[in-house]
Amino acid sequence: MAFPKEGMKVYIDADGLLVEYLDTDGNIQTVKNKVVAVSNYEYEINLNEAKRTILALRPEYLGTVITDLRNIMKYSRSSQFVNSRTKRAFNPRLPS
């Protein structure tokens, strides 16, 4: 939907924060512009703050996730196998 539509009468405040227009019924509708200038610094701060949000898993999915993780984390028999919960690992940074 294009705004404003052809034939609409629109009033825009001098600072562009308030827009008034006539709707199809002839009523005046007022819309406050929520667009605000943001500096690069503020943008980066907001972006980093959004990354701090922790999304919790919904309880109805918890059983599925636990089952999937248990299936993925099972160790099969190999040269590194110790038991069903442990596997040896080689760390090249440790001196022999």
Layout: helices, strands, pairs:
Layout: E1 10-12, E2 18-22, E3 28-32, H1 40-51, H2 59-73, E4 81-83, E5 86-87
Antiparallel strand pairs: 1-2, 2-3, 4-5
Structural commentary:
The protein has 96 residues and is of the alpha+beta class. Helix content is 28%, strand content 19%. It contains 2 helices and 5 strands; from the N terminus they run βββααββ. It has a 3-stranded antiparallel beta sheet with strand order 1-2-3, with no helix packed on it. It is elongated, with a radius of gyration of 29 Å. The termini are far apart. The mean pLDDT is 79.
Keywords summarizing the entry:
single chain; 96 residues; alpha+beta; three-stranded antiparallel sheet; two-stranded antiparallel sheet; 2 helices
| Rg from alpha-carbon coordinates | 29 Å
Structural class: alpha+beta
Arrangement of strands in the largest sheet: 1-2-3
Low-pLDDT residue intervals, each spanning 5 or more residues: none
